[in-house]
Amino acid sequence: MSLRGTATWTAAAFVAASSSWVALAQAPGAPSRPISRELEALNPPVPDDIKVSEERRVPAEKKAAAYKDPKWTAPKTSWGHPNLEGTFATDDMRGIPFDRPAEFGTQEFLNEQQFIDRAKHQQAGSDHAANVETFNKNTWGVRSFGFTSLVVDPPNGRTPPLTPEARAQATARAERGSFGAGPFDTFEDFSLYDRCIARSLSAGMSAVLYGNGIRITQSPDSVTITYEMIHEARVIRLDNRPHLPDAVTQYSGNSRGHWDGDTLVVETTGFTSKTSIGGSATNSARLRTIERIRRVDPEMIEYRITIDDPETYTAPFTVRAMWTTQPTLTDIYEYACHEGNYAVSGGLAGERKFEQEVAEAKAKGLPVPRRSTMNEVYSAPKEGAQVFDINKGQ
């Protein structure tokens, strides 16, 4: 958790965050999945008289020090490396589509009116989170960027199509996890996300429900990146040691880095085939990524990752995101996910209860009850339901 406030890690919040990523980053050709009413808060109504904050009135990328002065260089550590250290978040990326809408073509940045519309939308989302949402509110950043998409290469800003094999896998995978159709018989019927195990490198690309913090620390021979949600930490070696043997695989792979001027270039291999990078299909063990990380402002880190996985995507593609400071994010604490996670135990218990109801119905000659979906359970209350606000002590 971060200093932005404590949050109880419930199954509902957990799968909502996961579903948000699917909604934002689903690859073309992958099966569509509904989202809950809570996630509809990502698109709140925009009042005609909304007041946009001063921070949002100009595209944030145009205010970056490296944009205003091409000769600007990042500060250095005491041993002479570019200084990337700090606590950042991807919150400012909320509302920027992963894949560029087709009508933009190769337009990489919004025009003036398009940017104003986005700024208003993001301001409305921030206001809605502050004044309406409760314990599992969306975290919105304080800046607005003018990017038309997170994908920047190919030039149309769209994720390349999945391979036929990956497309079939994505269809099957859509039925797994808390938002899948079940059945839930073992813990392996739940996603790594549900089980508090891993998010992999996707954590640095976009904003999910909350927990988008990123902390960078450095030493002369390594850079460590810690992601707030699911508490993953990557140690990027800078000492020219070789990658681990091919037989050794990890959820976040094994990374080796070097400096190219002010940019940290990171090559990562050795992934498992159980995680997902940039879409609904899991990546293969042949995944290879190249990340380029540089400070472009005292408050901004530009992050680019090129994803090359010939078994999953028909071509490589590159994603750009900005990691930025946030006024209420001053540090990142342990993300105690397992301690409050009821996704697995609750899901298995619910499945056993459903089986019991089915058996009882059959014994009585009654129709077999319909299985509820998570989207039905995790949604707005039905008309006439008793509603109370736990934050007001009701």
Mind explaining what this structure looks like?
- This protein is about 20% helix and about 15% strand.
- The chain is α+β, with helices and mostly antiparallel strands and about 400 residues long.
- It has one domain.
- A hairpin with a 5-residue loop joins β4 (about 220-225) and β5.
- The model is unreliable at about 1-35 (pLDDT under 50).
- A six-stranded antiparallel beta sheet has the order 2-10-9-8-7-6. A four-stranded antiparallel beta sheet has the order 1-3-4-5, with no helix packed on it.
- The protein has seven helices and ten strands.
Termini separation comes to 26 Å
Q: How can the largest sheet be summarized?
A: 6 strands, antiparallel
**Count of DSSP strands:** 10
Q: SSE order, as H and E?
A: HHHEHEHEEEEEEEEHH
Please sum up the structure shown.
The chain has helices at residues 11-25, 60-63, 65-68, 112-131, 164-173, 343-363, 374-377, and strands at residues 86-89, 151-153, 213-219, 222-227, 233-237, 254-260, 263-269, 288-297, 300-308, 317-324. With 394 residues, it is an alpha+beta fold.
